[in-house]
Amino acid sequence: MPEITTKPRTQVKPQTERPKLYKVILINDDFTPRDFVVTVLKGEFKLSEDQAHRIMITAHRRGVCVVAVFTKDVAETKATRATDAGKAKGYPLLFTTEPEE
Asked: Where is the Adaptor protein ClpS core domain (predicted)?
């Protein structure tokens, strides 16, 4: 009689990775009015007046400031919309994104 060996079945649960996060960065320029930068930060990123002012001042002093961290699609959309708001008013306001380490 032949020997029958059976292997137990194991269920493998798929491992889902967390999506990579991206930083939205405000780049300082010497032409965009501070009040306008605060307005854009409050409108696009839903920041309070105080938070928006602190981010604007940090970017002004250091040249750049991280505004927030999102998934790639959200970060790129918010950065583009905020930059476009500046362009619509004729300002060189610039937001970029980069991967978080």
From this structure: 18-96
